[in-house]
Amino acid sequence: MQTIYTAGLASILLVASLAVTRAQDQMVMHQDHYYIGFEVDLFGLFSVDGQFQKAAGTMRYDQANPAASNVHITVQTASIDTNLPIRDDELRSVSFFDVKNHPTMVFESLETVVKGDASGTVIGKLTIKGITNKVALHVKARDRGADPTSSGKGSFVTSFEASGMLRPADFGLRGGDARLTLRADFVKCAGKVRAEPACQASTQVR
Fold first, then answer.
1. pTM for the whole structure
2. Residues 6 or more apart from 135 whose CB is under 8 A from it?
3. Taking a C-beta distance cutoff of 8 angstroms, is the pair 172, 131 a contact?
4. What Å distances lie between residue 102 and 70, 128, 166, CA to CA?
5. What is the DSSP letter of 64?
6. Higher pLDDT, 79 or 191
7. Range in 14-28, 61-75, 124-138, 180-194 with the lowest mean pLDDT
8. φ, ψ for residue 169, nearest 5 deg
C-alpha cells in the first residue's frame, strides 16, 4: 500500500509540472479538487485501494522553457484512508508510515519531458520515512482555461490525470507493487477566488 501512496504523491507533481499556463505562473493545488488514490495487489488474490485525504502543493511553470518548471507537493501521511479503520491504524503505525515521526511525504520535481501539448513525463525525488528516491510518472492534461470559481481577472485553472507504479521496498516499506491514480486542479490565483483556501495558504497541508 505504501507504494501507492508514494505514487500518488509523485503523480501529483508530475501533473502539475506539465501545465500549460503563462510563463512563470505560480499555481496552487485546489484544496477541493484533487484525488490521490491507490490500488495494491495482494498476492494476486485481491486488491486493496484507498486514498490520501490531505495534501497541498505549488507549481511554477515556465512556458518558454518547460525544463525550468518545478513542482512541490506535500502529503499528510496520517490522512490515509482505506475504508477500514483497523487497517488504517496499522498503516499509520511504526511498522509502516510511522506518521508520528514522519508526518509527511514530499515530492520535488527535477525534470520534465513534454511529449506534445497534453502529455509527458516528470522525474522527481520522492521522500518517504526519510528515504529519498527518484521516480518517473506519466501525466495527461485533462482541461485548462479560465477559473470559473474566480471573480478576479487572470485566474487560471489546469486539470490533470496521472498514473504510475511504485515499489514500496524502495522506501523501506513492505508490500507489493502499487498503482496510483491522481486527478488534480491547479489554480493560478488572481483577485478574490471563492472557496479556494489554497490561494491564501498555498504551502500549508490542511
1. 0.78
2. 6, 7, 10, 107, 123, 124, 125, 126, 164, 166
3. yes
4. 24, 8, 19
5. S
6. 79
7. 14-28
8. -60, -25
